[in-house]
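seq as requested:
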Amino acid sequence: MKILFDFLPIMLFFGMFKYAEGNKEWAASAATDWLGFIVAGGVVGQTEAPVLLATVVVIVATLAQILWLKSRGQKVDTMLWISLGLVTVLGAATIYFHSESFIKWKPTVLYWVMGVALLFGQVVLKKNGIQKLMGAQMKLPDPVWARVNLAWVGFFAAMGALNLWVAFNFSTVAWVNFKLFGGLGLMIAFVLAQAVVLNKYLQDPEKPL
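struct tokens:
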């Protein structure tokens, strides 16, 4: 359930982009009416309108997530605050300059921030972020937790690089598809592969590393 909540802004971004892409005349008119006062030149064309409208939706959705958690007295993860900051700054640049290049950097920056945070925690602070997150659900030897943490560091580094490769070597439509289906699919595949590997340690905690 949590993964659906985490991916909700991306799903809404995808939905708005696809709708606007299929109704470009409406999208250009709506984007000009709604965003003209903060867009350079005051007019949004049909080419850039879908991604600009989708960007507004993802900013609002991310903010709504935080307000929802706050209203229920729940803790807002640091990464969600960082995500809001990134999507607001890069999204504002995308809207103002009529350029999707800025918002395309957002997933990469977020992936790399998460990877650096995990690596810094393990190497400098001697704290394992993944163990802290998942330690209540499973018991593993400390060396295994260290490997799991580094595996996530590598995954986030690779995902950040892959996002840039898709973003700047393929069409915006292809990137939007990858952002949802590729990102979610690779995340699920990585988690499942990791579960298979870790299962042997859960069954036999004394198993040699």
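The mean pLDDT is 91.
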